[in-house]
Amino acid sequence: MEKEPLISIKNVWKSFKKNKVLKGLNLSVNKGESLVILGRSGSGKSVCIKCIVGLIKADKGQILVFGSDVTKLKTEVLNKIRIRIGFMFQNGALYDSMSVRDNLAFTLKHHTKDLEASQIEKQTIEALEAVGLSEAIDKMPSELSGGMRKRVGLARTLIIQPEIILYDEPTSGLDTITAREISELIVSIQKKQHTTSIIITHDMACAKATSDRIMILNEGVIHAEGTYSELENSNDEWVQSFFI
Ligand SMILES: Nc1ncnc2c1ncn2[C@@H]1O[C@H](COP(=O)(O)OP(=O)(O)OP(=O)(O)O)[C@@H](O)[C@H]1O
């Protein structure tokens, strides 16, 4: 793994009115690395990754992505960075009125202009194959189980061949076995495509399977950092409470 930060958050602050969420957050993710962020509900994990893609604007601080400070970029330049980043939302964020095929094709057409229909079809099939869901191509989102929705959401993230993938609770709401399958899929994508990832999760099995490194967010800053086994063996009782 190369030790080159692809994402670097420096002294970032974010409040919503009186609610101070990020209070001088620092974190970095190296190229090819998979970072898991843990933290209690409401601790600001989603806000943190939304700041990385500029969906939420930080009040203060620097957020370097591919070497550019996204807090300072104009929309056109920010969009050039965004198209290199995949964002897997909690619910898959599928368009309910479109079939799986159309959901994927729409994302691809929006991302890469002037693609031929045959190329779109090929990439759609490949993305669904990558998540083991080729048979669902003509289904509507309402016909999919929670696990299938997550897989289609992942296929839609992968179809743009992102260099960075941000996963917001990829296994939430799934049974243990399906959750494990999604975690295994994340690891296999990581290995095959050498993506750089941030994974937000409350699922410790997912954290264990997918992380090179874990950071635990508390009170707007990183409270602890290490590998899964380092943190599992931490003397800090609060850190240990995540591993029980
Ligand atoms: N757009 C917004 N407007 C106002 N407040 C917001 C907004 N987004 C997030 N917040 C607030 O910021 C805080 C952190 O929210 P965030 O979604 O980042 O938590 P989280 O750590 O991801 O929680 P969970 O694990 O429950 O998903 C919460 O108090 C939330 O209400």
UniProtKB/TrEMBL annotation:
<dbReference type="GO" id="GO:0005524">
    <property type="term" value="F:ATP binding"/>
</dbReference>
<feature type="domain" description="ABC transporter">
    <location>
        <begin position="7"/>
        <end position="244"/>
    </location>
</feature>
<dbReference type="Pfam" id="PF00005">
    <property type="entry name" value="ABC_tran"/>
</dbReference>
<keyword id="KW-0547">Nucleotide-binding</keyword>
<keyword id="KW-0813">Transport</keyword>
<keyword id="KW-0067">ATP-binding</keyword>
<dbReference type="InterPro" id="IPR017871">
    <property type="entry name" value="ABC_transporter-like_CS"/>
</dbReference>
<dbReference type="InterPro" id="IPR003593">
    <property type="entry name" value="AAA+_ATPase"/>
</dbReference>
<protein>
    <submittedName>
        <fullName>ATP-binding cassette domain-containing protein</fullName>
    </submittedName>
</protein>
<dbReference type="InterPro" id="IPR027417">
    <property type="entry name" value="P-loop_NTPase"/>
</dbReference>
<dbReference type="InterPro" id="IPR003439">
    <property type="entry name" value="ABC_transporter-like_ATP-bd"/>
</dbReference>
